[in-house]
Specification:
Length: 279
Amino acid sequence: MTLVELIIAVVLAAIVLGAATASSLRQQHSHASILSTTDTDAQIRAATLVMAGQLELLDPLAGDLVQGEADDSAIQVRAPVAQSLACRREVGAATLLPEVPSTIALGGVVSVPRSGDTLWWLADSTWRAAKVTSVNSVTVACGLVLGSGRTVQLILGAADTIEAASPMKVTRQTRYSIYRASDGTYQLGVREWNDSTHRFSAPQPVAGPLLPRSGSRRSGFRYFDAAGVELTSIAGPIDVAAIARIRISAQSVVAVRGSVQDSVRVDSVDVALHHVVAH
């Protein structure tokens, strides 16, 4: 091999290696962009779907939305944390059905009931309510299920009588909001009412980071009445009893390497609320 042939071979090898490296870098950038977009879309879907699941069973006429606590960045609701049937007839207390592995579950618990929650039970086709003052862990046997098991007994602040097999649900004041976290990012967070401190707990992130505003679009909530007219807080607090539909919007930034402008991903979902007989 002559010197000229060696130089030509080295140049060709460099060209081939450079092309392969450039192709590999493009694939890496494309892969990183796809991962970033997928992660952002997952966060946005989490924000919209979590909220939709919480809102779709609420009834504004029954007080499930709190008057004066619905705006474009936050909404306070009476969120269900448990539902069951009354294990037995009691006065001033209510015992949830125990969980017995050999039987079909007739209820469910998202969060263990606690002092300050509200118990609702169906009596004579009307939902009645009483504040929960304390919660006991008990082992009981009920005629509605085969066997005994651990469950919770709710002590109420009123001497109401709850008949056996009465449908029951436990609710807790919960506030969802777009807030600025300690790291400077904006998150969709949830805060639950704590009766012992008489205030809401610190926000716990549900999804994020989110972009609060992008032009005329924003992450948050919009409210509409039954005729499709948007309800705003410009002239005063929104009348929550008039809300028939809530639009949940979320947007976030996808950082695109090598691009002058990042990409903004947006998604929204509309939730139609129930309007049944007031409790």
